[in-house]
Write a structure and sequence with these properties.
- 66% of the residues lie in helices and 0% in strands.
- It is mainly alpha-helical.
- It has a domain of 52 residues.
- The longest helix is centred in the middle third of the chain and has 39 residues.
- It starts with 5 loop residues before the first helix and ends with a helix.
């Protein structure tokens, strides 16, 4: 979407008169796509926060010593 030149995105041709209806419709399409992009990032953020919450809640009952680290599992290294 951001790699397309504005003339192409808004269907503006050099040398021709500007058709306001076509330009407005293309502009509305761009605004719609940006709104969808914002909505997708919001939904992705909600899903990832839910996953982080589920993981942290699952770790509350496990003592820190039992969680283990890479050093605990490989004591000789």
């Amino acid at each position: 979407m951001f790699s397309v030149p504005p003339e192409t995105a808004l269907n503006i041709k050099k040398g021709n008169t500007l058709d306001v209806n076509v330009a407005a419709q293309s502009g509305a399409t761009i605004v719609y796509r940006i709104a969808l992009l914002f909505l997708m990032t919001l939904i992705g953020s909600i899903i990832s926060n839910r996953g982080i919450k589920l993981y942290s809640e699952s770790q509350k009952g496990v003592p820190h010593a039992e969680r283990g680290t890479a050093a605990d599992q490989n004591p000789g290294k």
